[in-house]
Amino acid sequence: MDRRRLSRQELIRARRGDGFVGRDGELAAFRADLARDPADPDFRFLHHLHGQGGVGKTSLAQRFEQMARELGALTVYVDESVHGVPETMAEISARLGRQGSPLKSFDKLLATYRERRHEAEAALAGPDEPGGEAPPSPGSMVIARAGVAGMGLIPGVGPLAGAVDTTQLARGADRLRSRIGARLRNHDEVQLVLSPVEVLTPVFVRELGDAADAVPVLALFFDTYEATGPLLDTWLRDLLFSDRYGPLAQNVMVILSGRDPLDRRCWADHLEHVTDVPLDTFTEAEARRYLAARDVTDADTVEAILRLSGGLPVLVSTLAGSRPGAADAVDDPSDTAVERFLKWETDPVRREAALAAALPRHLDEDVYREAVDAEAADHFGWLCTLPFVSERGGRWRYHEVVRTAMLRLQRRRSPRAWTERHGRLAEAARRGREERGSGRSPAGCRWDERWRELRLREIYHALCADPRACLAEALSEVTAMARYEPTAVRLVAETVRQAGEDGDEPEVRDWGTRLTAALDGPDGLAGALTALLAGPGLDAAGQAEIHRVRGREHRKAERWQQSFADFDRSLELVPDDADAVFGRGLTHRYAGDFERAAEDFARALDIDPDQAAPLFQLGEIKRIMGHHEQALTVFDRTLELFPQHGPSHGSRAVCLRRLNRYEEALAGLTRAIELHPGYAWAMAERGMTYRAMGRYTEALAEFDRALATDPEYAWAAATRGRIALLTGRLDEAVANFGLAVALGTANPWVPARRAKAHQLLGSEVQALADYDRAIDPDVPDIPRAVFQAARAGCLRRAGRPDAAREAVGAASALAPDEPVVRYESALLATAASGVRAAAPVWEALAPFWEAPRNAEVRPPYDDDLTGPAAIAIVSRCALSDWAGARTSLAGLLGDGTPWERMAEAEFGLRDLAALWPDRDATTTGRLAAVRRALLHRMAEAAPTSA
């Protein structure tokens, strides 16, 4: 039971509940349900109250809540003030906490989410992971299909993401994940920002179950569900009927109260579990009982109330509120609903206060004092006792039927007073907003929930006061919110729509409706921005900003041409807009046009020389293009201006590694990780630096660290597999390459390398399957000739010579001079005709016997599957050039040669021996000696433990 003293508001609600009359059948059914064991098959855990406005949905839901509490239940009540799933969970947690049942772990995770959510915005200009673009990872596809990646960081997505292509959305999530890893602290925080519902809900459900364990029933009430249903439907359905978020306690009950029936598209498969509670107006008998309970018994008076109210409960309640004693006290010459609501309040100050207090959408005492005249300032307590005023979460609101009527009366009665009062409320909100935003950036203001609330209040009242003068400014806030806090764009659009509705201004209402419809359409936020271009009073700067923000949205969706068109148009309107030039540069970068990207970043710096983002991106472009010395100069300038810029430390270090300045590179990467402890990209790059230095154990440790930070880091898994293969950890190599494949890497060298590991382990069938995967015809720009040649070796060893020759033929048609293609051709020629007859083919390999000297250790995946040293040793042995073979062997067995290179040569000698059955004893001995030397050094180089 509730373990605390009731508040004044709860006592008021309880007193109202004590006099609740009517709805006997609904109350009896709900009471019976509360009395059941939740394990009973007849226990109804999902109730839906619905009906027209004023029919008493909220009153009945509140009576249900009171009844549940009286029977020992723990209850939580939320309404339309929530605007998303995380906010709903936060509200439920806060209310449970105030009742002595806090969700501590959830609250801690929620606080982290709110902090990290905005940090992620700053990471969008950070470096990409190396290794190329991958298809969407499985995790991102889950996020996309759940429709919860629409954080404003990924385009075209609001709370309703059904019309968005999930592959596009998932690819955006993957790119975002790779880039915010530099700013956030660890993988868990990246996941929390990208998929808050998926991360927060399991913790919420677990702790909700702990709270439910202490009570017979935990009842969650969702009022005004017609407003929140589109945001909460899927989440609630999955919460109740799937295991997606973990097991929900069986004694959790959900009560939905709204105007409309449930959306069958979401709930159709579960309607048999829904207790449907349709509500209509009071029957005459119910209305009479209600009036009798309030001492309204005069027959003529009762008849007058029945006639005026039409049985609508809110009107019956209001007309009975002052217990009229005669029919003439009810009959209303003006025939306005407002006079019915207030006619028995004789104090003119209070009457006027009740009207004025209807102007704000929500009330607290401060807002009330701004709304009413000075003489009514102390009557807030009285207002809260009126039957059509209810409180939730410290805010009061009028019943929609009553408020609508009061607004209409004031608007018609005195347009001047209407304008003055709304103007006063708008001014108060503006002052509060400016005070709240003092010293903050435009982005920081819009990230602040309280600032946003004040800004929305200001927009609403300004539009009601003077719609023609204020509409353009209100619409400009849509653009500003789209730029800095896209998730709040819907709130602005809804505010505009409601202001138009309440102020009876069709143009304003239509704008709000148009914007919300666009947000729910296939283009999402980009569609809403398109609609804004037709807005009133839009000057060149305003148009330019819309094009700039829409260009960003198109870039996120990889609609390159539309993005370029928007940025170009923005610059036509405002030629020296550094932000637009920079945005176009990012589009060029991600579209792969690095030269033009560099031009735009340089131009943005000419306009505004001391900005971190274009300076860093210019350095990135120089690095990506291989101009490492030039990139170093740019990164040095960046760090001179912004010493704490972690991505610049990291990218500068990569340039140093490429220039063989390894110790300096390690120092730079260490500094980047100090600045951003969860910087998995920098950890992986430190691993690459250790690999280039031949310090494989330390390299593996760094990739382990990167994967521990971000378990979905496909490139890190693949590179760890590459190092494992280099050092002879074949089982680890197979496992890590397999992980990279499972995480969705598109790099064809990953399955090709796994195939090689399988070959060295003697698993030709698995190797052949991986080569088939690597040759995927749907993947562009892959070395198909190399993969076909390696595949031919698998087929040859599997006893399928015809298929092997076909594969070599396909490889030769693509790249006849590729060393591995010629090498496999020689082995096939030897198998068909013998070693002597194949001598010319082996001799053709002579140009590839010498490896490049003083070359940096190559990055992963760009070297041949059979290295030049192996080709030299095997071909010289095939030609009986034993002196040359010994020379090549001595070079191969020098210090620092990876185990893999020696294994390639030994593997090739095994192939040659199998194809040379008629060799003499001398040849056999010499081949065996070369193999023994290789096996001895391989044993020395092999890892001592897995």
Looking at this protein, list some descriptive labels.
mainly alpha; single chain; 48 helices; 946 residues; two-stranded antiparallel sheet
Quick take:
The protein is mainly α. Among the domains are: 27-73 and 215-227 and 236-274; 107-130 and 140-197, no CATH class; 284-331, no CATH class; 345-413, Orthogonal Bundle (Arc Repressor Mutant, subunit A), CATH 1.10.10; 415-529; 816-946, no CATH class.
Classify the oligomer: single chain
Kindly estimate the percentage of residues that lie in beta strands according to DSSP. Answer: under 5%
From the spread of the alpha carbons, the general shape counts as: elongated
> What percent of residues adopt helix (DSSP H or I)?
55-70%
Average residue pLDDT: 84
Gyration radius from CA atoms, angstroms: 36 Å
Number of strands: 7
Number of helices: 48
The largest pleated sheet is described as:
5 strands, parallel
SS content category: mainly alpha
Provide the spatial order of strands within the biggest beta sheet. 2-3-4-1-5
Explain the overall architecture.
The protein is mainly alpha-helical and 946 residues long. Among the domains are: 27-73 and 215-227 and 236-274; 107-130 and 140-197, no CATH class; 284-331, no CATH class; 345-413, Arc Repressor Mutant, subunit A; 415-529; 816-946, no CATH class. It is built from 48 helices and seven strands. α25 runs antiparallel to α26 (524-532), α27 (540-556) packs antiparallel against α28 (560-573) and α41 packs antiparallel against α42. The model is unreliable at 11-19, 124-171, 329-336 and 852-862 (pLDDT under 50).
